[in-house]
Amino acid sequence: MSAQNLGQNASPLRLGIAGLGTVGTGTVKIIQKHAELLGLRAGRPITITAVSARDRMKNRDVDLSSYAWEDDARALALREDVDIFVELIGGEEGIAREAVLAALKSGKDVVTANKALLAIHGQELAGLAETNGRVLRFEAAVAGGIPVIKAMTESMAGNEIRRVMGVMNGTCNYILTRMESAGLPYETVFEEARQLGYLEADPTLDVGGIDASHKLAILAAIAFGTRPSFDAVEIEGIERVSIDDIRRAADMGYRIKLLGVAQMTGRGLEQRMSPCLVPADSPLGQLQGGTNMVVIEGDSVGQIVLRGAGAGEGPTASAVISDVVEIARGVRIPSFGQPAARLSVPQPARTAVPAAYYIRLQLTDKPGALAKVAAVLGDSGISIDRMRQYGHSGHEGIAPVLIVTHKTTPEAIDHAIEALPRTGVIAGEPVELRIEEV
Amino acid sequence: MSAQNLGQNASPLRLGIAGLGTVGTGTVKIIQKHAELLGLRAGRPITITAVSARDRMKNRDVDLSSYAWEDDARALALREDVDIFVELIGGEEGIAREAVLAALKSGKDVVTANKALLAIHGQELAGLAETNGRVLRFEAAVAGGIPVIKAMTESMAGNEIRRVMGVMNGTCNYILTRMESAGLPYETVFEEARQLGYLEADPTLDVGGIDASHKLAILAAIAFGTRPSFDAVEIEGIERVSIDDIRRAADMGYRIKLLGVAQMTGRGLEQRMSPCLVPADSPLGQLQGGTNMVVIEGDSVGQIVLRGAGAGEGPTASAVISDVVEIARGVRIPSFGQPAARLSVPQPARTAVPAAYYIRLQLTDKPGALAKVAAVLGDSGISIDRMRQYGHSGHEGIAPVLIVTHKTTPEAIDHAIEALPRTGVIAGEPVELRIEEV
């Protein structure tokens, strides 16, 4: 059958949608609004047969009356009139996982936005899909509407990936950019974000870097052909980022971002999620507010930067629909870009590759104080690229000192940070932040 | 057969590569270097059977000894041991087109990087591919390694596209950014670019905006479901961009870019390629050197920005390989995202949507001069957002004046630009440039 005729003759592709929160209702809305366009592009009509959610009575601002209702997502997954099970419930265990397993085992294709599920059980689920001759797709799980899964599994198929990194939690980026623009401390902006409804019910998922780390683990698996290994991500959230550091970093030409970085090194797979300094005039540095950005580096293509809305009804539903249309078109690509059984168990790198670091400390007004600091850095094998001492202030005569080091190892930095307070010329704890080369 | 077994059991996919310039040799190199990785990702081995180019004797820095040689690309297209015909010759007519037609008619899939061919004959070729049950893919034709064709035909399938725009000729962007950073006039930097080998043999293709307009016509077709219609692109190159305008635009917070914009309006399809002002701190404004950027706006996903190398051996070959892997995986998507027969003939918009404009003129030192200028703008229905008059200089007392208008129509601007010299207070011709909202 030629592609021209597909649209007229083909049977509809029938969806069962489990989970009717923001993304679920957004997905229903697109299918209702763009039915004709979707049929044209997919080559066959795309319809919804049945839906499922916790509370049937909730007002959802979308007409669900023509769809069958299931109280239990697992029952939805088993319906014979469903071709694709669309899982938009969330959560790495429980009902979401059980329903996805049931759907794959009963011969359904699965589309999900569930980053936790994929980051933790991704290899098992992808393997199950392949064993059953089904597909499992999850474009919406990483960076909302940004087509990063497709870019990595398909567009960069001819590349050995060198590094993938990104700002993948809009709430954290909102908090950091708002701190800078309004000059407000972390706690104040955190409270603002909570009141605006930007935070997850458990805010640690956002500000603790968990959510972004789920996404990083998925990207790392695709990039390096390894099993998703969320447990091996070194995670630090944004809770310790101070307005002082944001201001001082800006003085030195940097911005602080919660940056996820994955790269394969000679010592294993490095997966880090932490506040890092990036040049203020780089694409990552210029990223404001809730927007997400992913940077992928391949040996042939060089650096690709993708930028867009990382969350929200429209963008995330748009990603869900792209997976649905792909399946409707008959596209069947392994979940992680290669057979699940071939994904290797990664050896986690025990330490990050060398980098420049930013160090901020409070120097007391004593003769030879700066010399002692410099000596500690020298003893730790760290050489200084730039240093700036601000004026002494307050009755105790404390002077902020900023140091940008040349490339050095995390171990050398740890050594110096531990030794600095012992000089007796430092007030409080020194702060160190990695400067990522972007 | 499950995906796990595909790699071991499947027959190799055999390529015939026509054209062994930069992109062709780059494609051969990736296939040689990443044979195992490609096999794993594609689910079957990818091999080269035969190649073709004008000059067999040329030293190409790549080992071609294990491939059959054809002097004629059309003969290569007809070989029985070729599954995909990879056309990297270029040119909208002649041998490239004939060979692609021959390949499609003889049942081969086709991958090409030929933007001119697609922009002009795209609908015919896509239709022929579909009639013959073959696919025609061309990721490499637009913006090199940036996966913009895939993003539009696949990732944004759930969106009505509102606007697509971009900086898609690296040479022009190099010239414009180099003019700004070095403070050099157009002619000097043009000559530099020529000596660096950045310009096409016919430089009008680059600086005249032709090459970028081919790309825009392809993107517009995918975005709006219309036949590619290069003839309807309103094209203006960068030849008239002066260092004065670059400096003055920077004073007002803008950068000048050769920007392609396509949008569907109530009055038809607008396709424009012209030097425009964009805010200096926008992603497009910050784009330096030879890098490309495409911005796509969809009704669900919002704004997606894709950035990367728009040309060069590695990036363009990476895009060619992504199409090859896609075909190897059995993916068969209509060339323009929907059946070629359904692509409508677009009604070209006779005029662009309203925008703010930048006007620069040389005011003579006469009483009431500025009032006369303001009166002309008012009579044309143009209101002024910002104006800046610099000091009079030279023995003739000429003062540069910059005006940023509120949104107005191109007709009103044309009217004003025609009327301004008649005031008798202007030296030389006034300059106007559109300010694109990005």
UniProtKB/TrEMBL annotation, chains A, B:
Question: Where along the chain is the active site annotated?
Answer: 215 (proton donor)
User: Superkingdom of the source?
Assistant: Bacteria
Q: Which CDD domains match?
A: ACT_HSDH-Hom
User: Could you say which residues bind NADP(+) here?
Assistant: 18-25
Annotated keywords = Amino-acid biosynthesis, Methionine biosynthesis, NADP, Oxidoreductase, Threonine biosynthesis
Residues recorded as binding NADPH, renumbered to this chain, are: 115
Q: Which residues bind L-homoserine?
A: 200
List the protein's name. Answer: Homoserine dehydrogenase
Q: Which organism is it from?
A: Paracoccus kondratievae
